[in-house]
Amino acid sequence: MDEEISIINTETRNEKIKNFFIKNKNNLIIIISIILLIIFSYFVYDDVKSKNKIKLASKYNYATINFISGEKTKVKEELIEIINAKNKTYSPLALYFLIDNNIITEKDLINRLFDTVISSDKLEKEIKNLIIYKKGLFNSNFLGENELINILKPILNSESVWNSHALYLMAEYFYEKNEMYKSKEFLDRIISLEKANSQIKIEAQKKLIRDFSE
Questions:
Q1: What's this model's pTM, rounded to 2 decimal places?
Q2: Longest dimension (CA), the chain
Q3: CA 117 to CA 122: how far, in whole Å?
Q4: CB burial of residue 135 (10 Å; 0-12, 13-18, 19+)
Q5: At residue 177, what are phi and psi to the nearest 5 degrees?
Q6: pLDDT the model gives residue 92
Q7: pLDDT band of 48, cuts 50, 70, 90
Q8: Who's near 171: CB < 8 A, 6+ residues apart?
Q9: C-alpha gyration radius of the chain
Q10: Which residue in 159, 152, 67 sits closest to 93, CA to CA?
Q11: Residues 6+ apart with CB under 8 A from 73
């Protein structure tokens, strides 16, 4: 008797499962198709991203080699294209190469290219902060204090590893303008930082002793 009941229960359960699949066949097909599409899309995206990175690497190497060898035609345009791709590796490198080799000198264009790189959501936080610092450094010779502070604000108001560098840049900026009180304020902030760059902290201490001791 128990065996017969068990057989009936098993058959009933199997029938329910069968009916469930029959009843929901279309929905199950759609769900499985979506899952397979997501998996396929992931691998396609990963493959495309890898190929794009290789393409950008080749483009960057080709442009820099051509510049060094004297064939400078289209180097500027090619490097700007790499910057606009917002690749976390080659976009910053292309920007630095343009600036370091004076391929572009227009301040407005350089700042727009800085902003393009900084706006990328692919950059690691401290890499982005480094680029912000470099933008501040680039602009420090011709911008007013409010504009310069506004550029460096994301670093100055953070615990970034580049915080002490930005503070020292501002201290030097005011020192060159003979605004000694403001310069000293930034140097004092460096000294008070627990996580200040050790070399920057030493330089700040030397400058305080040398230029601000009574």
A1: 0.73
A2: 106
A3: 10
A4: buried
A5: -90, 5
A6: 93
A7: very low
A8: 183, 184, 186, 187, 190, 204, 207
A9: 30
A10: 67
A11: 66
